[in-house]
């Protein structure tokens, strides 16, 4: 057992249910990628959520690593789900969205819970997994100076040393403030590509600069290993712009996002409900184009994370 994670492992161990495949992969020093489950419970409609959950696991496998989808059921934290659990999660009509603060409450009530970036990071770290793939992270909401609405994902990134492979944040959020927050809280923020422009999920650029960009995964591996050697407790974002061929629909989707944001304000949608409301409204307005694009970037990120996790375990410090 890795002593570095022992403290957190011990506190979580009563609740952690790690699948035999994930346990074996970790024990053998193989690459493992955590996958979140809010995207399954709240991000995509059934049955697309189920097929996407399976295709993300497949992408991780075909890039040489093992997938570990994380979710809460029956008072336990599950790391690595079999087909039956994936189906239960995807078809649940009562699943709750679980950020870090909600883990305990979801366990005591034995609810079905889809984990956000924040809680998935926390759980992945407790299980000894250091690479995690998702679509987009939460961030600073527009109007946060009035509402104080800032995703707990950013807090978790500031204190949990897990690398989150994502496509940045949606423009429904305040991207410059989100990037600023990450810098203030010492989160490594790297763009995977030529240009140092933080991606905005459906589009490749946001106009905000990240810390640096690189086309080499080995440089990301070095960064993670060096941060670990330095004992730095912060998370890392590896921001992967949506692949060119899917970015074409970006402008249309962007207009739909602007409309959905206006509607959310008019209908006084607040707090944890904002992101699911906007995502589903944008999908309606674009007649499904946003969902296709969303799935494409999720798959791309899962493949990159799979390669990164493999390089991370095979490369010497
Ligand atoms: N961004 C997306 N799709 C999502 C989310 C974010 O484009 O499904 C989900 C992620 O699970 C993320 C969470 O961690 O929403 C953030 O929610 P909140 O802002 O309530 O913290």
Automatic annotation (TrEMBL):
What is a single cellular component term in the Gene Ontology annotation?
A: cytoplasm
Q: Which domain of life is it from?
A: Eukaryota
Q: Does the keyword Lyase apply?
A: yes
Q: Which residue spans adopt a coiled-coil conformation according to this UniProt entry?
A: none
Q: Does the keyword Cytoplasm apply?
A: no
The terms under GO molecular function for this entry are: hydrolase activity, acting on glycosyl bonds; metal ion binding; pseudouridylate synthase activity
Q: Pfam families of this UniProt entry?
A: Indigoidine_A
- Could you tell me the keywords of this UniProt record? Glycosidase, Hydrolase, Lyase, Manganese, Metal-binding
Gene3D superfamilies membership: Indigoidine synthase domain (3.40.1790.10)
Q: List the protein's name.
A: Pseudouridine-5'-phosphate glycosidase
| Native source species | Caenorhabditis remanei
């Amino acid at each position: 057992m890795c002593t570095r994670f022992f403290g957190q492992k011990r506190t979580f161990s009563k609740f952690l249910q790690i699948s035999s495949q994930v346990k074996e992969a970790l024990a053998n020093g193989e690459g493992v990628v955590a996958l979140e489950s809010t995207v399954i419970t709240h991000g995509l409609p059934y049955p697309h959520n189920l097929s996407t959950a399976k295709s993300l696991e497949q992408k991780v496998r075909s890039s040489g690593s093992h997938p570990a989808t994380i979710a809460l059921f029956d008072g336990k934290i599950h790391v690595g789900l079999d087909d039956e659990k994936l189906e239960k999660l995807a078809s649940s009509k009562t699943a709750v969205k679980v950020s870090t603060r909600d883990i305990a409450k979801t366990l005591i009530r034995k609810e079905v819970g889809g984990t956000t970036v924040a809680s998935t990071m926390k759980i992945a770290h407790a299980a000894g997994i250091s690479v995690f793939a998702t679509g987009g992270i939460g961030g600073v909401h527009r109007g946060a100076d009035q509402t104080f609405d800032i995703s707990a994902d950013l807090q978790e990134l500031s204190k949990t040393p897990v690398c989150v492979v994502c496509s940045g944040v949606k423009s429904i959020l305040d991207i410059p403030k989100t990037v600023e927050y990450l810098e203030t809280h010492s989160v490594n923020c790297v763009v995977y590509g030529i240009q140092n422009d933080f991606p905005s999920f459906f589009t490749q650029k946001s106009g905000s600069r990240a810390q640096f960009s690189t086309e080499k995964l080995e440089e990301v591996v070095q960064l993670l290993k060096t941060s670990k050697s330095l004992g730095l407790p912060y998370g890392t974002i590896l921001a992967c712009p949506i692949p060119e061929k899917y970015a074409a629909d970006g402008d249309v989707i962007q207009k739909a996002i602007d409309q959905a944001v206006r509607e959310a304000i008019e209908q006084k949608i607040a707090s944890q409900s904002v992101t699911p409301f906007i995502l589903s409204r944008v999908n309606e307005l674009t007649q499904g184009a946003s969902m296709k694009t969303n799935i494409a970037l999720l798959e791309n990120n899962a493949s990159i994370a799979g390669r990164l996790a493999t390089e991370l375990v095979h490369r010497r410090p």
